[in-house]
Amino acid sequence: MMQKHLVTGTAGFIASHYVEELLKLKNIKIYCLDKKKNNYLESLKNTKLSFIKCDITNLKKLKNIITKIKPNYIVNFAAETHVDKSIEDSKNFIGTNIKGVFNFLEILKKNKNIRFLQVSTDEVYGSLKLNDKKKFKIGSNYSPNNPYSASKASGDLLVKSYFKTFNLDLLLCNSSNNFGERQHPEKLIPLVINQALSKKRIPIYGTGKNVRDWIYVKNNCKIIKKILFKGKPGSQFLIGANNEISNITLVKKILKVLSKKLSIKYKNLEKLIDYIEDRKGHDLRYSIDNSSIKKFLKKETFNFKNEITRTIDFNISNYKEIKKKITNEKWFNIKYKNLDTR
Ligand SMILES: NC(=O)c1ccc[n+]([C@@H]2O[C@H](COP(=O)([O-])OP(=O)(O)OC[C@H]3O[C@@H](n4cnc5c(N)ncnc54)[C@H](O)[C@@H]3O)[C@@H](O)[C@H]2O)c1
Predict the structure, then answer these.
(1) What is the pLDDT of residue 318?
(2) Ligand 1 centroid, distance to 232 Cα (angstroms)
(3) Atom number in ligand 1 closest to CA 122
(4) Residue 54 DSSP symbol
(5) 85 alpha-carbon distance from chain centroid
(6) pTM greater than the 0.85 cutoff
(7) Helices marked H in 125-187 — which ranges?
(8) How far apart are CA 239 and CA 57, in angstroms?
């Protein structure tokens, strides 16, 4: 029997990899929904894919789409995702990350046979101390510190409450920081690579000691697929790769790989690092106890060195295109206008 999957946020980073993961399955039709054009996935010209332009805050349109398609599964990746943007203006975060989730849940009340997976973040748990052994666990208190994480936390709480109140087939997963090919160059890892390739200053918030727990996007997507098929209704999963690194260590690792690949002296790249005023409400450390996904990890292997090298190679090969993309983006240009050549 043909399975129908509706995946949202597919013009973005993680969902585009998730759709590639789904494409490995036979007898599947994947409906890719985003408010933006799905440039990458459309370029694959795969007949298993259909594309829908829709803003998930538009309840009427979303309802018509779901009623027409009658999907077996919905995975919601669509979100406003940049913490800095949420600090500058939170309006769209409240719209998409809260009202968008609410819209799906309302539609699902009348479509109880659809399984819905909400994709969220470990940032909902707030911040851990540096040099502590504590990790975020299922059941840890939600304690978001910025408008992005607060909006994602609200979406999570709506999912949890609709499961209890209306007994819908809902799942929730919260992953740590993702990296990999096609991530938007406004995010830390591609930003560092592209600034270094342009010989421009590399901005590091505060002391650079903040710790993140990095997971390669393709591993995250394999795990999300398993959760979708095997998760018990109402369950929540924390996805991490046990890979805590401070921002400054990460940046130096990237610059070391780059210096070898480009035959540039490491010192010449290191001097591009520019410590800037800390982000408001900057969380110190994220760390995930991934025991809730242990049973899904049997075949997954994490190899940070290979994964970061692949990410760097992608950014080098696509440097010109990425540069063109950011040159045309108003927010990016305003934010980084002072980071000129050193
Ligand atoms: N990137 C990470 O490190 C990370 C970590 C944990 C969780 N997440 C979560 O994973 C999801 C995907 O993140 P990403 O990094 O791929 O983000 P992204 O910004 O690359 O992609 C988000 C996509 O959502 C779309 N979108 C935004 N508002 C929409 C709306 N109202 N209607 C329809 N589409 C809309 C955007 O156009 C974009 O294509 C998000 O829910 C995010 O909170 C991300």
Answers:
(1) 97
(2) 24
(3) 6
(4) -
(5) 15
(6) yes
(7) 147-166
(8) 27
What are the tens digits of pLDDT across the range 100-113? 999 999 999 999 99
Counted residue by residue, the chain has a size of 342
Tell me which residue of 197, 210, 198 sits closest to 250, measured CA to CA. Answer: 210
Task: State the helix-helix crossing angle for 188-197 and 247-262, rounded to 10 degrees.
Answer: 40
Could you say which residues of the chain have pLDDT below 70?
Answer: 337-342
Confidence at residue 338, expressed as pLDDT on a 0 to 100 scale: 63
Question: Smallest Cα–Cα separation from 216: which of 176, 185, 256, 186?
Answer: 176
**How much is the pLDDT for 163?**
98
Q: How remote is the CA of residue 220 from the centroid of ligand 1, in Å?
A: 14
Is 78 close to ligand 1, i.e. is its CB under 6 Å away?
yes
Beta-carbon contacts of residue 90 (< 8 Å; ≥ 6 apart): 147, 151
Q: Of the residues 6, 39, 40, 81, which should be mutated to test ligand 1's pocket, given the most ligand atoms within 8 Å of the CB?
A: 81
Ligand 1 site, residue 55, Cβ cutoff 6 A: yes
Tell me which of 6, 7, 10, 13 to substitute to probe ligand 1's pocket, judged by most ligand atoms within 8 Å of the beta carbon: 13
Nearest-angstrom CA–CA distance, 149 and 98: 11
User: Which domains are present in the chain?
Assistant: 3-179+215-239 (3.40.50.720), 188-211+244-280+298-324 (3.90.25.10)
Query: What is the spatial distance between Cα 164 and Cα 175, in angstroms, rounded to a whole number?
Result: 23
* 80 CB within 6 A, ligand 1: yes
